[in-house]
Specification:
heterodimer; A: about 700 residues; about 20% strand; disordered N terminus; B: about 160 residues; alpha+beta; five-stranded mixed beta sheet; 5 helices; 5 strands
Chain lengths: ~700, ~160
């Protein structure tokens, strides 16, 4: 039997060899793993170049969260190289180690530890090599910025000199990570990698990729999900000089110039049979409850029926939220180019390795013959692909059309396509039946959610008798056909933004019934130390003055947990115009405990961004539809937060360097719905239970009160 | 109608022979290879395609190329000079006034047009002038702070 590399490593000799790998410039790192798991060989993640630079390869994708900065910090710190010598290479399926996709705020929480382990092992191997070359015990060596020094002999050798641009063929097991006390870079803000390129327009997004001979494709789209094509006449488009290509059900017009292809598509005449009647944006909530799969038990403690016997009053409410779109400013984009039997896909995607699989399946070829490259992504928010097929469909379309056309093809969805095909946050229904004792304690809690999913559905509060069930959700396969009239999927903080809206609204409803200040009411039901800490910190920072709502001040608060890990408390001041129904959010304080923050400033940006984005699903964003036909086609139809909406925002990321890192990309968005609903109640004494709280809904609630 | 249109692009003479009704965005991105101006909506709703024409911010997705004949067009590629960032760009970096960066070229140029008109705008005027440019990542407050800072450094750096 031929010895494998692992056998060699298992001998544990002090020998090491370099294999014949090319220089970094030739871009020839370790072959990507074929099975879906993170490679264990640290060479998959890093290369020390002959030029003194360190290349870091990650299958993660940066879409604005600052991953490439935070991960570069993690690598540089554990490896003990200078931060500015690290070059990040992301989302390339041939050069980067396999990854399961960028989402669920997992990049720092899970992947940063994998990367740090790789760097820590590489550092330990390099120190061992240095010890041999300098003939000094490892313990005596110091390393700084990639240079190993033996102070006793006053000798030094750099990583670059030892490695000479080659692959390191030595491994060590169980190398510990640095402890917080030894961090040089982790936990400190570092300059954003590539900031100058962003502000000068040099950063390349997928739509900026151009390959020789490339054609822009515009694809014929149905007027509604579920509509079937009856007849199509492309003759006018062809007469005007456009090339028409049909592939696997796609009908597309192609031209070198995008706008000329746009014009040609308008000349295509098509007739469709409408889809069977379906729910609309008013009937959807009943429809969801009727069509959802049987509810599953998420959690139970005690018995709510028994708890109700202790209650002085039963409070039952229903909370609703609409379908919302991700609406990144960069629409779904892809380029496909075949060369020598292999296709290269550039795709705006959160999951390049899943795109590779999707494209390979669509073309009926092996994954080895598909290479996916992910340039900088212009916003994702869950809409650009994890496990949901439709979220990277543009790459599939580009691949099919490129093969049919025999030319490289670019597919860049227009705004109407983006509003039609994004995997929407599901509309959802939450019913809460709760019992409040005469002493103002919640003694029973029956929580049922339809459509959103179970993430963070279980209450964090100390309620002796509680039962939580969930039916359907945002994950693939969670819903029977016909439940949602179009595709749904993860939308920043999936499930949690619905569940937090319902739970934290209801906590305030109960606090008002009990005649207790909302902060005090929560503290009366909280033993979770980190959540108490963020809540108390927020109250101090905000200057929260205890008062039972409605106090006429327009202040509100909400707590949140994300994936039952990170903790946050948010407070707000709003102004409500009862006549117009307009809600102006004036000031937000958000305090978060997310464990070790690799880049605290980056976390603050995520908090600020999440709060502003949250104003959209809370106040304005809603998909209107009739069956599969979607009304929203532009930003004019679908208002997203603007400059004039942005409140003063103060964020505090609690210093917690010895705790493991938790995600921060999604959590800040989840409390915003209840936060504003609670503040509106405090301002005008009217409770809104449906998102978004548009001016029309606020006016209607005022009139109904 | 196919026509040769001459204009000044980032300080240099430029000429394109195209259908004069085509939108400037696609001529810039496709025919001229300047991809800094982005396609975000195509309906003048988002501002990602903003460029400067004769010192005014315009939405290039909705500006026919015939409208720029004989005019001065500035794109994000031409704002910095001699390899140096313009003060607005510097301020965007300093305040980290972006996340995904897709709207950033349009934001920077819209801010540039504002500061040309009013070198010392207050926060309210900045918000009012920027309100038509959309950012989905939520960098608004940082963008306002960056523009306020840049307003102090604009002297002598108009293009």
């Amino acid at each position: 039997m031929k010895p494998t590399r692992r056998d060699f490593l298992a001998t544990g000799t002090g020998l090491f060899v370099f294999c014949q790998a090319g220089p970094l410039d030739a871009q020839q790192p370790a072959p990507a793993a074929r099975r879906p798991s993170y490679p264990t060989d640290f060479n998959a993640y890093l290369r020390i170049g002959a030029d003194g630079r360190v290349a870091c390869f990650v299958g993660k994708v940066d879409m604005g969260q600052g991953e490439m900065t935070a991960l570069a910090q993690c690598l540089a710190d554990e490896l003990d190289v200078a931060y500015d010598t690290v070059d990040m290479l992301m989302g390339n399926t041939e050069l980067c180690p396999w990854d399961g996709g960028t989402g669920s705020s997992n990049c720092i929480q899970a992947f940063s530890l994998i990367l740090r382990r790789a760097a820590a092992e590489a550092r330990a191997v390099l120190l061992q090599m240095a010890a041999e070359q300098l003939q000094a015990p490892v313990e005596r060596l110091k390393v700084d910025a990639g240079v190993v020094t033996d102070p006793a002999q006053n000798k030094r050798i750099s990583y670059t000199e030892m490695v000479q641009g080659k692959r390191i063929e030595r491994h060590l097991g169980n190398v510990p990570l640095k402890s917080a006390a030894d961090f040089r870079l982790i936990g400190r803000a570092q300059p954003w990698k590539g900031a100058a390129d962003v502000v000068t327009g040099r950063t390349k997004y997928t739509g900026d990729i151009s390959v020789p001979g490339m054609l822009c494709a515009r694809i014929l789209r149905p007027p509604a999900h579920g509509a079937t094509l009856k007849s199509v006449d492309t003759s006018a488009a062809e007469k005007a000089g456009a090339r028409v290509v049909r592939a696997d059900g796609l009908i597309a017009v192609l031209d070198e110039r995008r706008d000329v292809a746009d014009a040609a598509l308008r000349l295509v005449k098509a007739e469709y049979d409408p889809p069977p009647e379906g729910p609309n944006d008013r009937t959807i909530y009943d429809h969801l409850v009727k069509t959802a799969p049987p509810a599953t038990l998420v959690g139970q403690k005690g018995d709510p029926a028994e708890g109700e016997k202790l209650a002085a009053q039963i409070v039952e409410e229903t909370y609703l939220n609409a379908y919302v779109a991700h609406a990144p400013i960069e629409t779904h984009s892809a380029v496909a180019a075949f060369e020598d039997g292999k296709v290269t896909i550039w795709a705006s995607s959160q999951s390049p390795f899943q795109v590779r699989q999707l494209v390979a399946e669509g073309l009926g070829v092996s994954q080895e013959s598909v290479r996916v490259i992910t340039p900088m992504v212009g916003g994702g928010f869950g809409g650009k692909g994890l496990t949901i097929r439709s979220s990277a469909w543009q790459a599939h379309e580009a691949a099919l059309l490129a093969r049919a056309a025999g030319k490289p093809v670019q597919v860049v969805w227009d705004r109407a396509e983006e509003f039609f095909y994004t995997n929407f946050r599901p509309a959802a229904v939450v019913k809460i039946r709760s019992g409040l004792s005469g002493e103002g304690k919640i003694v029973s809690w029956l929580y049922q959610v339809w459509g959103a999913g179970n993430r963070d559905a279980i209450s964090v509060y100390d309620i002796p008798n509680q039962r939580t069930t969930s039916a359907g959700g945002w994950t693939e396969g969670a819903n029977p056909p016909g439940m949602h009239p179009f595709g749904v999927g993860p939308w920043r903080g999936p499930s949690a933004n619905t569940n937090t809206f319902a739970r934290e609204s209801h906590l305030d409803v109960l606090a008002a019934k009990a005649g207790v200040d909302p902060v005090e009411f929560r503290l009366n039901h909280l033993t979770d130390p980190p959540l108490r800490r963020v809540l108390e910190t927020a109250a101090t920072k905000f200057g929260w003055k205890p008062n039972k709502a409605p106090g006429g001040r327009g202040v509100g608060m909400a707590c949140g947990t994300y994936k039952n890990e990170s903790r946050m408390a948010t407070m707000v001041e709003v102004a409500v115009d009862k006549r117009t129904g307009h809600v102006q959010v004036k000031h937000v304080v958000c305090v978060m405990d997310l464990g070790l923050a690799a880049n605290p400033e980056g976390c603050q940006r995520q908090l600020e961004g999440g709060i502003v984005m949250g104003l959209g699903y809370t106040l304005s964003e809603e998909i209107h539809f009739n069956g599969g036909a979607i009304r929203e086609r532009s930003f004019d139809d679908y208002p997203i937060p603007r400059f004039s909406w942005a409140p003063k925002i103060e964020t505090i990321v609690l210093d917690n360097p010895t705790a493991p890192p938790l995600g921060c990309g999604e959590p800040p968005v989840i409390t915003v719905g209840a936060l504003i609903a609670n503040a509106i109640f405090d301002a005008i004494g009217v409770r809104l239970r449906q998102l978004p709280m548009t001016p029309e809904r606020v006016r209607a609630a005022v009139q109904g009160a | 109608m196919q026509r040769t249109i001459s204009f000044t692009l980032n300080g240099k003479p430029a000429r394109v022979t195209v259908d004069e009704e085509r939108m400037l965005l696609w001529v810039l991105r496709g025919d001229l290879g300047l991809t800094g101006a982005k396609f975000g909506c195509g309906t003048a709703d988002c501002g990602a395609c903003t460029v400067i024409v004769n010192n005014e911010a315009v939405r290039s997705c909705s500006t026919p190329v015939k409208d720029i004949a004989g005019k001065r067009v500035l794109t994000i590629e031409g704002l910095g000079q001699d390899g140096k960032l313009h003060p607005i760009q510097e301020a965007f970096v300093k305040h980290h006034a972006f996340q995904c960066g897709f709207c950033t070229p349009g934001m920077v140029l819209n801010a540039y047009a504002l500061l040309l008109k009013n070198p010392r705008p207050g926060p309210e005027e900045i918000v009012r002038s920027m309100d038509g440019n959309l950012c989905r990542c939520g960098s608004h407050n940082r963008i306002v702070a960056a523009i306020a800072e840049a307003s102090d450094g604009m002297k002598g750096v108009t293009r």
